[in-house]
DoxX subfamily protein
Amino acid sequence: MLHDLLFRPADRRDLLLPLVARIVFAATLLGYFWTSALTKIGDGPLGLVRPASGAYAQIFPRQFEAAGYDAAQLGLHHWAVVVAGTWAEILLPLALVLGLFTRLAAIGMAGFVVVQSLTDLYGHGAIAHAETVGAWFDHVPDAAILDQRAFWMLLFAILAVKGGGALSVDRGLARVADPRPASRIA
């Protein structure tokens, strides 16, 4: 009875968990993704569509090396992926922090992290370094790939399932779209 009294409101109005997930993301990963994005932006006002050469080295390490570290030798596909990845690394984290299109942004971030992890493992050769890859259930929780990114994916899963929660742009948009009393809007 005491359990139900304490936790039933949380069952009905599960808005706190997504808010906390967004705050944890902002506190721990927002700077990481934005710093990474800044290394990909080229010089000048067109830097968002003319990536720095380091962007190609990060995203296509083996192809960039094979092209003699000359981005002009790579194709339109490489340019499009680098530009889209750079924009995603800026916009998706911003959307998560604001709680704007939270579910889509969380799914996008999960996909981004999968591609990032595969690039790290196979493109940059981390697969050959067991300490970087790590292993689950090994009582050593500090591996960069399996351990850390599992926690990232948990945050994204919470946000993809629960939405933005309290104090999110999504919640504000829902209130505008449905002017009924707030107590009836999920």
The longest helix spans residues 76-98. The chain is about 65% helix and 0% strand. The mean pLDDT is 90.
